[in-house]
Amino acid sequence: MTPITHLRNRIDQLSWCVAQAAPGDHVRRLSMECSEQEGAVQTLDDALRREVADIKTAKPALRRRKVRLSMKLTRRVWRGFTLIEMVIVLVIIGVLAVMAMPDLSAATIRGQIKESGPLIDVAKQGVVRAWGLTGKMPTDNTEAGIPEPAKMVGKYVAIVTVKDGAVNVTWGNSINGSIKDRVLTLRPAYVEGQPAVPVTWICAGAPVPTGMVLAGVDATDMPQKYVPPECQAHAAGK
Q1: Which of 39, 71, 80, 165 could disulfide-link 215, Cβ–Cβ 3.0 to 4.6 Å?
Q2: Which helix (H) or strand (E) holds 128?
Q3: Last residue of one domain, picked from the residues 79, 97, 126
Q4: For residue 136, which phi and psi values (nearest 5 degrees)?
Q5: Is pLDDT of 121 > 80?
Q6: Are 156 and 119 spatial neighbours (Cβ–Cβ below 8 Å)?
Q7: Domain that holds residue 57
């Protein structure tokens, strides 16, 4: 039974005492009972007031505790979301890095090929010179007037071989591993019987300009994506 219910019962009993307090033989006894009931009601009233005061005092503390718990829960939730977001960001960065690696590798290889240009030009100039002097394409390094293949080396080049006018470059030494020991062929395209017309160099399987004849055989075995764009059509001496 709650204090309020108990208090109501006591008030009802007190009311009954007052109603029964009439002249007669039992007046004194009823008066004493009513006095006792009144005292009990007063005691319960005091207890109720204290309980109400305790509740009022406890409310702010409960409110503060509720706020603290809510803030702690919020922090935990945000901390969890932050961790998840960090993982997602790291995964995205990893995927982008993996996707970018082939492009970076291709750019590096093209740069190494371009850096080898002066050595390759020695062989190309030998072919053009022989063509201009004899009217035919040189069959090997000797006819092209250049060092033997094993001595045509560079930082990224292992061997340069001239065969029927075509210049075959075998990559090696410090070249990127993706094309090490692979071959890139540059073939001269010329106008037959007209040595005075500049030779155009065709890289790998690029098409031959109309009206020109392509010398040699394409021995290229490296991926086309590593072939520099500028070697697709190249005039001799440039």
Answers
A1: 165
A2: helix 117-134
A3: 79
A4: -140, 160
A5: yes
A6: no
A7: 3-79
Half-sphere exposure of 33 (CA within 13 A, CB side): 16
Tokens of 15: 């009311």
Residue 220, both tokens = 């290229």
| C-alpha torsion 153→156→158→159, nearest 10 | -60
In this predicted model, what pLDDT tens digit does every residue of 41-50 receive, in sequence order? 566 566 667 7
Same domain, 42 and 134: no
134 and 212 Cβ atoms separated by less than 8 Å: no
| 151 assigned to some structural domain | yes
Within this chain, do residues 74 and 126 fall inside the same structural domain, yes or no? no
Give the per-residue pLDDT at 35.
56
Enter the tokens of residue 71: 């803030």
Question: pTM value?
Answer: 0.57
What tens digit of pLDDT does each residue of 201-223 get? Answer: 998 878 888 999 999 999 999 88
